[in-house]
Write a structure and sequence with these properties.
41% of the residues lie in helices and 14% in strands. The protein is of the alpha/beta class.
């Protein structure tokens, strides 16, 4: 299985989903080797074997790369200190690193290692292609029946492993370029890589019916090989402590501050609620490219004293935030699934979610509104804040409902998809 991140070091729901799914597969008798570009060594390996792609040596002169990874491209090894993509200052920095033995990229003849960054940096596309080369090397040495690749960053890795091994490929769609950028701002490079992976796959898993329809209609993938596989939530015995140091009610947004997640609608909704009840605090927990816009809009509306920005939260800080929250809001414009409402419900926080989300397909005890309907969202928040019986109903029933959404059951369905792909009876 090829992924890009794994707890405890994550940037969003992808890593959380990978953890839940691998644990669920283990409980269904499936052995998983999870490959990621940069492992930190503190990942939970109770249910999965972690392979760090940064530890794998690749040989770019081998027949594998000439015939399978980049067909039609010839490689000639040149003994040189020239390093691509660096200026004069960078070149001498590399030479200094080589002299001191601290250069992160190691060269041994035609064999080399690449130390991947631990996130989504400026050389992302280069790392995607290098990851594919590492995947081919791993596919030559590992014993496995099937390849599973998560999201577009790993699709080329999955394709490379399939070409080398001849084993079937399953790709998992956690979000599409249409979700991230919208209909009219599509990044054609990312779209092309997504479609390339889906077309090469023997089976495609989509996290909701909403996403499945996009895959079929926008990417032209045959419907018979696209399966809906809803997400779940990782169970925990730890109860989130209800504790806050302010008297006011707290309404929380937790997620990336990007177009897809609808943070600007959260701000406009906050203004509507505060016009009726000024004794409410709103918290925007996250970071992203819309942060400056959101901060400026909060100032324009004159609600800065009622609005708090925490930055990106993880682990115990998320639990602490849910412990302070009276309502959780997810106003996403296009959300393939959305794991954070499940985490909020597990902490007994009532949730308001957009109808334009995959998670709305599986939840009964959540208030669902159109993302653009600020008045309906404000009414839902106001009702949960001011009618204790309503709030308690959604808190209690929501917790009960989400505890029945288990990764083990999701993995059981995935195993059936694996068996179909492998033509098992």
């Amino acid at each position: 299985m090829f992924g890009w991140e794994f707890p405890p070091h994550i940037s969003g729901g992808l890593g959380t989903a990978c953890y839940g799914l691998t644990k669920g597969l283990a409980l269904n008798g499936v052995d998983v080797t999870f490959v990621m570009p940069h492992a930190s060594g503190d990942e939970d390996e109770h249910y999965v074997k972690i392979r760090n792609a940064s530890d794998v040596e690749i040989d770019t002169s081998s027949v594998t790369y000439r015939e399978h990874i980049f067909p039609g491209v010839s490689y000639i090894q040149v003994n040189s200190r020239l390093v691509p993509y660096v200026g004069l200052e960078g070149y001498y920095n590399v030479i200094d690193q080589m002299s001191s033995g601290t250069l992160e990229q190691e060269f041994t003849g035609s064999r080399r290692k690449h130390t991947f960054s631990s996130g989504y940096g400026k050389n992302l596309m280069q790392e995607v292609n290098l990851y594919a080369q590492v995947a081919a090397e791993i596919a030559k040495s590992e014993e496995f029946d099937l390849i599973h690749a998560h999201d577009w960053l790993t699709y080329r890795a999955g394709i490379a492993a399939k070409r080398v091994s001849g084993k079937p490929l399953v790709v998992h769609i956690h979000a599409t370029e249409y979700d991230r950028s919208g209909e009219h701002n599509r990044n054609d490079i990312v779209y092309g890589m997504e479609r390339e992976g889906m077309m090469a796959a023997d089976a495609v898993c989509a996290v909701s019916d909403l996403t499945r329809n996009i895959v079929i209609e926008k990417y032209g993938i045959p419907a018979h090989k696209v399966f809906t596989l809803h997400n779940a939530v990782v169970p925990t015995d730890k109860k989130v402590e209800r504790e806050k140091n302010v008297d006011e009610k707290i309404v929380t947004f937790l997620g990336r501050v990007t177009f897809q997640k609808g943070p600007d609608y959260f701000v406009e909704t906050a203004k509507r609620v505060l016009d009726k009840d000024p004794n409410v605090r709103f918290v925007l927990a996250g970071d992203g490219d819309m942060m400056q816009h959101v901060i400026e809009r909060v100032a324009e509306l004159g609600i800065s004293d009622r609005f708090h920005f925490t930055g990106f939260l993880r682990g115990a800080d998320i639990d602490k935030m849910f412990g302070m929250s009276d309502v959780y809001v997810m106003p996403s414009i296009s959300e393939p699934f959305g794991i954070s409402p499940l985490e909020a419900m597990r902490a007994k926080v009532p949730v308001v979610i957009s109808k334009q989300s995959g998670v709305a397909e599986v939840l009964q005890h959540a208030i669902k509104v159109d993302f653009w309907d600020i008045d309906a969202t404000a009414d839902a928040i106001y009702g949960l804040l001011h009618y204790p019986a309503l709030s308690k109903l959604f808190a209690d029933k929501g917790e009960e409902e989400v505890n029945n959404l288990k990764w083990e059951n999701v993995a059981k369905k995935l195993k059936v998809i694996y068996e179909k792909t492998l033509h098992y009876e």
